[in-house]
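Quick one: TlpA family protein disulfide reductase from Comamonas antarctica, structure tokens please.
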Amino acid sequence: MAIKKWIAGVALAAVAGIGGFIYLNAGTSPAPSSTFVLLDGSQKTTADLRGKVTLVNFWATSCTTCVAEMPEIIATYKKYQPQGFETVAVAMSYDPPSYVVNFAQSRQLPFKVAIDNTGMVAKQWGDVQLTPSTFIVNKRGEIVKRYVGAPDFAELHQLIEKLLAEA
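--- reply ---
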């Protein structure tokens, strides 16, 4: 009887240990190696963003949810940018570049805006097809959260604050 209890205890400890390991590593995967072509023609890579908490937002000018959430993304960027927060808005390949440029200028987007004219960046980030799709990347270059649709911005701000506080 004592041996059965001991075996059950060992099994329970093993399951708890594995569960804890999975929980602690849940949702973190390396951000793909990507090159973002910005509206001004310059390029940024995911490697350039290391050391910063980064929001990568896949969007389109034809997406009503994307357009509706943009003021919140701007406010989030302005709130956290002085603390080392970065934002890259990636326009989908089907979005006409002239529409993206017009949107970025008329809305005075303060962050980096990229055009994924080949669809390669969306493919690298998990074959993104639904917009908006937003990824939060920590300072180590790991994706810690993905939102499909508009994020809960209060929750998003808590996550950003937690990630900015990390060494």
